[in-house]
Design brief:
- Residues 122-219, 245-279 form a coiled coil.
- Helix 5 packs across helix 6 and helix 6 (104-302) packs across helix 7.
- The chain contains 8 helices and 4 strands.
- It has helices at residues 39-44, 47-50, 56-59, 75-79, 83-98, 104-302, 307-333, 342-348, and strands spanning 6-7, 14-15, 19-21, 29-31.
- The chain has a two-stranded antiparallel sheet with strand order 1-2. A two-stranded antiparallel ribbon has the order 3-4.
- The protein starts with 5 loop residues before the first strand and ends with a helix.
- The chain is rod-shaped and about 250 Å long.
- A hairpin with a 6-residue loop joins strand 1 and strand 2 (14-15).
Length: 349
């Protein structure tokens, strides 16, 4: 880093940061921006790149203010031999001294030539001194101007420093805002992705819902058609059942009428049967009485007197009575209405 308050060769403001030094004749510092070098490129420059750097002024012809040792040309110096001719004369004089026996005329010619050259050099030195004084006065004026400019530059440097601090603060704030913007962008991207997923899911749900609705509508149509068919079938069955019911009612009424008729006939037959039973019982009783009387008379006629014989005759009479009873019972059991129950007949119907 260059020392503080080194004036820039271009803007004359003190170089503190981002500066580069000319390695040419002027040996001055320059702001990188003043010589069209960006701060980024300056930081990338290596030491071998910085050391041979020369400003644009040093690359061209040096001005008197920046090259005080440059020869000052004048109309007399253009026509005079110059320092090189003086050196030639000195060599001639030295050569003349080494050679003995030279004539006086040659020596005077050399002395005249040397005197002429010295006078010419003296004139040139006077002119150069005059030019140096003029240049010195110009330099003093320039120094005063530079001091004033330096003071202004120091003030500007303070302002620049404040601006740099403000710039640093703004850069920090800009960095924070940049990070915040990145965060918001990431958040926005996440929300956009989430919304896209929600939209895709909604589209999928909508598609599934439409498919379900279509299936339900198709099933509803099928069920409606089936319901209509079932309704027609049920109506037909109901009509058929109604007809069957009417027919059954008529059959029941007919069977009830038949049952009533049968019941009347049954009652009549039962009364007849009871009358016949009474008659049969009366006949049997009369028959048994007659049989008994006949057996008794037979026994009397035969003269049976023993107890065993009497018992045998009683057994025989009992046997005849049992046989007669069994025959009568068998005849009654063969009658068709004897064992029937009117209630059972009604239930069977």
């Amino acid at each position: 880093m260059p020392p503080t308050k080194y004036p820039c060769g271009t803007c004359t403001i003190g170089v503190k940061y981002s500066g580069i030094k000319c390695t040419g004749h002027c040996q001055m510092w320059y702001h990188a921006e003043c010589v069209n070098i960006s701060g980024k490129n300056l930081t990338k420059m290596s030491k071998p790149d910085v050391e041979p750097w020369i400003c644009s002024d040093c690359k061209t012809v040096y001005t008197p203010a920046r090259s005080p040792n440059k020869e000052i040309s004048s109309p007399q110096s253009k026509s005079s031999p110059g320092p090189e001719s003086l050196a030639v004369i000195q060599k001639k004089i030295q050569h003349f001294d080494e050679q003995e026996g030279q004539d006086l005329e040659t020596s005077l010619a050399l002395a005249a030539e040397a005197g002429s050259l010295l006078v010419q050099e003296n004139e040139e030195l006077k002119q150069e001194l005059h030019n140096s004084k003029t240049e010195n006065a110009n330099l003093q004026t320039e120094v005063r101007r530079l001091k004033t400019a330096l003071k202004d530059a120091e003030d500007l440097e303070d302002v620049l420093k404040l601006s740099e601090n403000t710039n640093a603060t703004l850069q920090d704030r800009n960095q924070e805002l940049h990070l915040e913007i990145q965060h918001l962008n990431r958040k926005l991207n996440q929300e956009m992705c989430l919304k896209e997923e929600i939209i895709i899911q909604a589209e999928s749900d909508k598609h599934m819902l439409n498919s379900t609705i279509n299936d339900l509508q198709r099933q509803l149509k099928e069920n409606s058609f089936k319901f209509e068919q079932d309704t027609i079938l049920l109506k037909t069955q109901i009509q058929s059942l109604s007809c069957t019911e009417e027919h059954l009612k008529k059959e029941i009424e007919t069977k009830n009428d038949n049952l009533m008729t049968l019941q009347t006939e049954y009652d009549l037959l039962c009364r007849k049967l009871k009358d016949q039973e009474e008659k049969i019982k009366s006949c049997i009783s009369t028959f048994l009485t007659n049989v008994k009387n006949n057996f008794s008379s037979d026994i009397s006629l035969l003269g049976i007197s023993s107890t065993n014989e009497k018992q045998a005759v009683g057994v025989k009479q009992k046997g005849y009575a049992d046989i007669l009873t069994q025959e009568t019972t068998r005849e009654v059991s063969q009658t068709p209405f004897k064992t029937q129950n009117p209630d059972m007949t009604r239930r069977d119907s």
